[in-house]
């Protein structure tokens, strides 16, 4: 029987945007970054650096997102 690999996968880029059953899950933060969700991942896209950061601690798909009016805190569920 085969042995499981010793390596893990690392998310490099999120392609896609969940919109078919959610509303309000794309916002700008206080720094002008684009914040959105796709599947079970929260994504912060920095346009100037063309880089993404990820929040991937959810065990299910994210269907709700709220940005604080100051744009410095985002909640997902």
What is the succession of H and E elements?
Answer: EEEEEE
Largest sheet: 4 strands, antiparallel
> Percent helix among the residues?
under 10%
In what range is the share of β-strand residues? 25-35%
Structural class assignment? mainly beta
The tally of helices reads 0
Strand order of the largest sheet: 1-2-3-4
What secondary-structure arrangement, pairings included, does this model have?
Layout lengths: L25 E3 L5 E5 L2 E6 L4 E5 L9 E3 L6 E3 L1
Describe the protein:
The chain has 77 residues and is mostly beta strands. The protein has a domain at 26-76. It contains no helices and 6 strands. The protein has strands at residues 26-28, 34-38, 41-46, 51-55, 65-67, 74-76. Strands 1-2-3-4 form a 4-stranded antiparallel β-sheet, with no helix packed on it. A two-stranded antiparallel ribbon has the order 5-6.
In short:
This protein is mainly β.
Supply the key terms.
32% strand; two-stranded antiparallel ribbon; globular; four-stranded antiparallel sheet; mainly beta; 77 residues
């Amino acid at each position: 029987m085969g042995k499981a690999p010793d390596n893990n996968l690392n998310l490099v880029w999120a392609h896609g945007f969940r919109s078919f059953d959610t509303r309000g899950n794309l916002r700008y933060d206080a720094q002008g970054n684009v914040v959105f969700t796709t599947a079970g991942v929260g994504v912060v896209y920095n346009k100037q650096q063309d880089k993404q950061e990820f929040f991937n601690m959810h065990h299910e798909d994210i269907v709700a997102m709220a940005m604080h009016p100051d744009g410095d805190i985002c909640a997902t569920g």
